[in-house]
Amino acid sequence: MNTPQEKQAVRAWIAQATHIAVLTGAGMSAESGVPTFRDAQTGYWAQFNPQDMASERGFRAAPARVWDWYAHRRAGVAAVQPNAGHQALAQFEQRHPGRLTVVTQNVDGLHQRAGSRSVLCLHGDLLADRWLDAPRACCRLGAAIPGSPPRCPGCGNLVRPGVVWFGENLPVDVLDAAQQAAQSAELLLVVGTAGAVYPAAGLAHLARQAGARVVIINPAPSELDSAAHAVLRGTAAQLLPQLLCPPGVERVNRETERV
Ligand code: OAD
Asked: I need a surface site. Which of 8, 152, 162, 205 has the fewest CB within 10 A?
């Protein structure tokens, strides 16, 4: 349980910080109905082997199986909405332009759909496609030759989802910008990540070494708890409105959620 004093202290840090970075993970979208990866029973990796479903080797071995899983995830994301946590971050950015940067491991686009503009997507975009054998070049699903997975009509190349898989590098420009945001922030909020995947998790250590306060928001222990100045036990949709919104706005958001 968090004491009111702990939350009050974090609210004060937020009020003082001229630049805030927010590192989000799958737990950020859990209350929208998007499964996490490592939660026991409900997480994707409780059902699937990540090497089968999230690596180039897995895709080449069984392209149809992997493509179909991503098609299922795309449909799932299209059917859900940003939650009160996404909204609180987007509204804070709108009230305080230039003060908050979201760095996300999520590929679901929910931060952007909530209205956040300053979003660095470390692990790509679930809804984007790219060629299997020409990384970074995009082709459009609509133009692709049907199949599972489809092929590019131009080169015949297999189409793969535009996400970062295990064993692949993060986009260099995005990682650079994320590291800069972590190093220049006075406060880093780490929301809904197990902190098990690097280089994303390394941003918390980087921020702390550069002098930022680090705050964890997670209902369960994470691997980054020991790097934090404060650990708030609770969910993203509960705590972010309480921390980031003026009191009246927080009530409105929670009521909108219930409707
Ligand atoms: P994980 O599934 O590893 O961790 C989810 C975290 O969210 C856990 O610490 C949960 O306790 C927490 N959580 C669950 N519900 C929550 C809620 N409502 N509010 C806040 N926190 C909640 O997900 P990530 O840490 O994001 O990579 O995983 C990192 C990367 O590993 C993913 O980007 C993905 C995966 O393999 C790739 O696909 C490249």
From this structure: 8
